[in-house]
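Let us practice reading a record.
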Amino acid sequence: MNRKELEPDSSPQAAFGARLRSSREGRGWTQDELGERMGYSSTHVSAVETGRKMPTLRFSRSADLAFGITGTDTFERAWREIRHGSLLEGFPEFVGHEGRAAEIRLYEVGVIPGLLQTPEYASVLAGGAVKRGAITPDQADERVALVAERQAALVRTSPPLIFVVLDESCIHRPVGERAVMEAQLARLIEFAELPNTVLQIAPFDMGERRPFNLPVTVLTLPDRSLMSYAESAQRGHLERESTSVLPMLTAYHQLQAEAPSQAASVVMLDQLRKGTS
């Protein structure tokens, strides 16, 4: 049987396949034996190893179980890097935690956050990145699909509590045609009406009373542990140390206390929406 030589540096998918083969051979398993442990055929395992077939989330998690891999350097994480290759480093891992969080607190500046975006708004943003040459059209489609996936993951039995504070710049920055912005503002109002959400607008005149200058997200996980996420231009950063996250949570509570109520914020949104009609 001919053995195909792998080139793990050629792509993230090739690196995944090479690692799968190396892990399998390190255990002395054949493709049949690994396939049996994972619930896949040897043909399927071979196709992933040689890069002829894209791994799936289920396949990646099955590989982690078969090899007993836990922590951060998992096949699932490698799959997310393949799936979301155009995204900031650290963001795919954050999305995984976000999808199972019990509480989500986020503050955004300048743009409506993904969890609240309409498909049209998301498409305009992604299209703009394509025009700038920052991403490819396929990556743009991937970004829009990810927005829908993130939102769908939060519509579940026992959904998370979601607290959102938007800087006023988010709702005044025009994105797309008037109809896009009008629909996006309507979406924000609908979001505020959900039983598990709180939406507030932090007006410009909050000035120095605003505790954050950059976007931030704080997650409360099912075990009540805390995690924060913030981005620079190059990467996203996850923080799990309570000594760092707790002050951020305190600052978020201060932000909520200073911002207008949800009712007042909805009035502001409705007035702005009618102005775009």
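A brief commentary: The chain has two domains: 8-83, 91-115+157-276.
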